[in-house]
Structures are given as structure tokens and as C-alpha cells.
Amino acid sequence: MNVSRYISQKIEGADAGSFTSSVTKIAIISIAMGLAVMVVSFAILQGFRNEIQSKIFSFGAHLQISRYDTNNSLEVAPIAGPRLLQELRAFPQVKYTQPYAVKTAIIKTPDEVLGVVLKGIDEKGGHSPMRQNLQAGKFITFTDTAASNDILLSRKVADKLRLSVGDEALFYFIQNPPRIRKFKVQGIYQTGLDEFDEVYVIGDIKQVRELNAWPDSLVGGMEVVLRDFKRLDPTADQMYEQLPYDVKIDKITDQYAQLFDWLQLLNRNVVIFLILIIFVAAFNIVATIFIMILERTNMIGILKALGATDNQIRQMFFHRGLSLTFRGILIGNLIGVGFCALQYYFKLIPLDPENYYMDRVPIFWDFKMLFVLNAATAVASMLAILIPTYLIARISPVKAIKFD
């Protein structure tokens, strides 16, 4: 039988109704609420990061590869699609590629006029990530022969032009000679990112090729999705070294640097916040063990007089502290994971898409991070428990027995 653990369990039962019992409850609540806040904070932070990155990647992928051109216009010189695709397949980090081409236009309706950018895409390589942003209607119907007249409007553009699914709109393309095309609104998308929603209309790349008199082998550029976004910088450097000199590589982190800087700033702030929470929880544990030792000073003196060593008595309070810690961790997990589950399935807390790029607080389930948070809380609490237990070695049996 472990004597230290046995005495620790007896102390726990004897503390009921005492001042130590109240302090113990406060320590458990402190650990539980600290861990719950950490679990919820990381789930929401990672949810924000994933949602915003997913929206950006669905529109611009990880890398955009086009012909190097000193022209600052959105419309760049074309590049040979099959050749570029063959060269990209040599990179093991490349997961998915999609050709695209853009064309500036003016949309005219009976009541409104608006300048936009028609972005032509092709789904031969697989379904476009833009499908996840579809809010109403259907996606573009692509054919192997004729160019599709279907387009996707953003919710912002559709509201400005008072267009809905099924309506037709005239597009005026300023070129020599000017061209007019009638497109049908097949669907309405919404990313929540004004950089996209206020500018782009999604259509068939064949329409852009016909307007520019390009053969089927030419594209405006190629969007590349990598297998691991964390490998973005080294993969881009590798492509820069191996692809032809006339190819330009744009990283999504450079194109939308403000958004990614904002996400990084959020991450730093949350880490600082979580360190403070762990510090407060550990401080409460230290204070609780100190109070336990002071209330049990007389008992400590008697145990020492009976031959108990400092280490045995220290283990007794250490087991008591561990019991408090694991109770707090269990309750904290129930509160934190429970809140995340309610928000994930029932979307209880809404957000303003104009300010937060999404309509509800997002939750991301990262069980690896959940384990790390639990382990960090347990380790910090155990280290905190050890600090006050070293006071036991300084307690004299004679003075402790007289202590009242």
C-alpha cells in the first residue's frame, strides 16, 4: 500500500466543509475554466484560419503561374497550357491544377452599369474549389464543344445589378472591335471577401479564348494547389529555379498579404492570452497547496515525529494536488468540447459577414492540439504543485505539533 496516497485520500474526505474545501473548489474551477477557454480559443482560431484560407484558396489557389509581363493590366499575355501542365506534373508537391483566363468587361442591365472581371475556368482537371462558395442556383455546365453561356455572379454584384438566378445580362468587352455577349446567371456565389465578391464573375474559359481569338492550347495562367500549404515557400522557390524564365509565379500569401498577416497576428495574440491563463491556473494551484500545508502543519509535525520522511509527506500533498488537477482537466474538457460541439452542430453564435468574412463562429476539430493543451495544463499544474511542497522540509516537528 502506498502510505502517502492513502493519507492523501483520507485528507480529501476530512476536508469537506472546511476552508480548504472552498479553496480546493476554486482551484478546480480555475483549472477547468482555463482549459475550457484554451480549447475553445484554439478551435475558433483554427476555424477562422481554415475558413478564410479555404475561401482564398478556392478563388486563387496556392500559386498562380502566368507569363511574365511588364503590363500591369489584369489581362496578361497567354501561355501554352499543355506544356505548362506537363512541367508542373514533375513537381511532387503539386496536387491540383486549373487553367484560367481573365477579361475585363462592363455589365449593363436596364437599371444599372457595373465594371467587372470575367474569370474563365475549366474543370477538365476536376471539380473547381469554387463550388464550395455556391450559395444559390447551380454551377456552370461545361461542354467539350461549344463555350458555355453560364456565369456565376457574387451576391454583392447580383444585388447591385438586381439580378437573380435565371436572369440574362449583357457583357460589353472593350477591345478592337468591341464585343457584346449575353450570359445567363446560372448561380450566385459568396466568399465573404470583398476583394473577390465585388470584382469577379466566373465563366467558361472558352468564352475568353473566343474573345481573344486564342486557340484551345493557350490559357491566361495556371492555378496550382499544393499537397501541403506549409511547403508553399520552398515549392515556389523550386518552381522558380526549374520553370522557364518567362514564367511568373505569384504566391497567394503575397497577393493577399494583409489577410495572412492578420491571421498571423491573431495567432500571436491567442498564444500570449493562453500563457496568461495557464499562469493564473498554476498560481491558484500553488496557493491551494500552501493553504493545505498551513492547515495541516500540526499533522505534518506528528507524521515527522512518527518517522515519516519529508519526501513521503511531500508525495502526500503531491497526490492531493494531482487529484485536483485531473478533476479540473476533466471538467474543462467537458465544458470546452461541449461548447464547441454545440456551436459546430447548431451554429448558435452568428457573425456579420461584412466584418468577419463568415456568417457564424467557425469550429475546427484538432484532436492533436486538444491533447497538447491537456498535456500542457497537466505539466504546468504538476510543476506548480511541487513548489509549495518544498516548504515541508523547513517544518520542525516540535514547533509543528504546538502549531495552532
TrEMBL record:
It is a multi-pass membrane protein. Residues 272-397 form the ABC3 transporter permease C-terminal domain. It comes from the Bacteria. The keyword Transmembrane helix applies. Signal peptide: none annotated. Keywords: Cell membrane, Membrane, Transmembrane, Transmembrane helix. The keyword Cell membrane applies. Pfam families: FtsX (PF02687), MacB_PCD (PF12704). It is found in: Cell membrane. Residues 26-238 form the MacB-like periplasmic core domain. InterPro entries: ABC3_permease_C, Lipoprotein-release_system, MacB_PCD. The chain crosses the membrane at residues 26-48, 270-294, 324-346, 369-393. Belongs to the ABC-4 integral membrane protein family. LolC/E subfamily. This is ABC transporter permease. It comes from Hymenobacter saemangeumensis.
